[in-house]
Amino acid sequence: MNNSISKLLAATIVAGSSIYASAQNPDAKYDNWPTYDGSDLELLVDNSGTHFTLWSPEAQAAKVLLYDTDRNTPATDTLDMKKANQGTWRVSVDKPLYGKFYTFTIKHDGKWLDETPGVWAKAVGTNGKRAAIIDFATTNPEGWSSDKGPKVDNITDVVLYEMHHRDFSMHPNSGIAHKGKFLALTEPATTNPDGLATGIDHLKELGVTHVHILPSYDYNSVDEANLPANTYNWGYDPYNYNAPEGSYSTDPANPSARVREMKQMVKALHDAGIGVVMDVVYNHTANNDDSNFSLTAPGYYYRHRADGSYSDASACGNETASDRKQMSDYIVNSVKYWADEYHIDGFRFDLMAIHDTETMNRVATELKKINPSIFVYGEGWTAGDSPLPVERRALKENVSKMQGIAVFSDDIRDAIKGHYSNAEDRGFVTGKPGNEETVKIGIVASTAHPQVDYSKGNNSKFAYAESPEMIINYVSCHDDLTLTDKLAKSMPGSTEADRQRAARLAQTIVFTSQGTPFMFAGEEVFRDKKGVHNSFKSPDSVNAIDWELKTKNAGQFNYYKELIALRKAHPAFRMTNAADIAKNIVFDKVTEPNLISYSIKNNANGDEWKEIKLVFNGSDEPREVKIPKGDWTVIARDGDLKATGLGTAKGGKMTVEPTSALILAKVK
Ligand code: CA
């Protein structure tokens, strides 16, 4: 979801009053609909046969159509459904129908609506138009029953790497056979033309703990019947929420292939010690009246304006109604399904503030029951106003009302590099003063700290996080300009070496801050997107990572690798509660702009290092700082960084070179 508009609107909404506040609620009627939370919704195959159960309380009649193929063939049978309990319609066939396809159609206001695979299709054919009946046991890769993602005690131990399947493997230089597919992440020993690791080996070398894959459920925009066209899309246009996207499989017409191949991907990553986070987009659907929600239970799943039109907090044409019981259950059951069936380790919620905090709390609680290592985070904003009252929205500002949910810190993001929507705007690392306090807000993960003055925060005016586990730190993601492009646009006349220094400083701040670090795939090799701000449907020539950059920018890659190693080796960067941060982080008094100096003291969070001194110089001039005398190990200096140390220093007056970090460690 592009948040360019969304952030702006979120800010206005929080400040102002909702246009819906006093309007008559056209959705009140839905509160009276019976709901059904059974795990047999839509399809169940068991010893007694094949059972269809459709939730559609207001339908006048309902049918199941059976097919032999996934498209272009007539129905082989039509089954009339009977009205059953809690708003459902049911019909059964006394044998398993494996290999068949089906759709539903309901009679609404005297008219039969278009066919739909339903909202619970777990396997689908080409373009997801017909649901498929498959035996899921046959889709499991070898060793699946013992497959497990990495154990996560605290989300702050995680290092997130956000990737799109095509970005990661499509480039001719990737050396990967299954380009743009789930299977790309199963191929060992792939290299760029110079023999440097790509693919899954690259991830292991870099040291990230989790990949965050852009939408991988079945989305609408890419025509699965025409894969040679190589159409690119981010996938924020959901069609079937509970089946994988067909264009990432080797055969979209074979419903088992996409299921099996996505599981193979998860298994390969797990075998490499890497977890898998799914980007989920329950806040809106690709279509309005033609969505699977509308074709099964017209009206119910969406919020509306007083005139009955779709309200649109997603800026994509509609918004779903998580505050309604059947939709809330749907979201909870859907993520549980992905966690159970696909062993997914985490979920990133798009435009999370369209959902209510109660539903998000249920999501976190239910997922932890399946696997305590699962974590959840999301965008704590909307892209427009909503009938959902501000205090119920899963906003960044409301994160402390949620347990086990984290939000992206746009505070640290914009303060480090400059405003996301104004390409030329500079930030802390590119010499613009006035961002120091907001960077400090990022360093303490938006928790209360005696030396951080929230009244000077650019984006937030209060310590909204009760815990660092509620904050995801980042400086760029798939939305907006890549860090490389942002630096190019905001540093006219600079050299590439200058910009790489700025990128290093930017990510050094992110990766040493409290909270959970998140990076956009390819920034470790200084990838760009040719200056394209919103590349959601740009071709591979814009979006694909050129893996020759790993050779060209080997120094950059090595810096990122060392930075990740530093964070992983030192729990001081990964504190788990606000009290520890307030006690152990001590800021030094500095007067120059674009300079921050602080210590992490007291062997924080069980660290072997007694004290870590971090000085960030975002100006283009050297700065002199006074470091207490003692035996220091130099971890970072003048654009270089090594987790185990570059050398030693005795303290006293030290120079921090322009656009660089000085990091010193004291063992005792
Ligand atoms: Ca699709």
How would you describe this structure in keywords?
about 675 residues, alpha/beta, 28 strands, globular, disordered N terminus, binds calcium ion
Sequence-ordered SSE layout with sheet pairings:
Layout: H1 4-15, E1 44-46, E2 49-55, E3 61-67, E4 77-80, E5 82-83, E6 88-93, E7 101-108, E8 111-112, E9 131-132, E10 160-163, H2 165-169, H3 199-206, E11 210-213, E12 217-219, E13 238-244, H4 255-271, E14 275-280, H5 292-296, H6 325-342, E15 346-349, H7 357-370, E16 375-378, E17 405-408, H8 410-417, H9 436-443, E18 471-473, H10 483-490, H11 496-512, E19 516-520, H12 540-543, H13 549-552, H14 554-569, H15 578-584, E20 585-587, E21 595-600, E22 611-617, E23 623-627, E24 632-637, E25 640-641, E26 647-649, E27 652-656, E28 660-666
Parallel strand pairs: 10-11, 10-19, 11-14, 14-15, 15-16, 16-17, 17-18, 18-19
Antiparallel strand pairs: 1-2, 2-6, 3-4, 3-7, 5-6, 7-8, 7-9, 12-13, 20-21, 21-22, 22-28, 23-27, 24-25, 24-26, 24-28
Helix pairs in contact: 6-7, 8-9, 10-11, 11-14
Calcium ion is lined by residues 127-128, 218-219, 222, 224, 239, 245-246.
What does this 3D model show about the protein?
The protein is of the alpha/beta class and 668 residues long. It is built from 15 helices and 28 strands. The strands form six sheets. The protein has an eight-stranded parallel barrel with strand order 10-11-14-15-16-17-18-19, surrounded by four helices. Strands 20, 21, 22, 24, 25, 26 and 28 form a seven-stranded antiparallel β-sheet that branches. A hairpin with a 2-residue loop joins strand 1 (44-46) and strand 2 (49-55). Residues 127-128, 218-219, 222, 224, 239, 245-246 line the site of calcium ion (CA). The site of calcium ion has 9 residues, from strand 12.
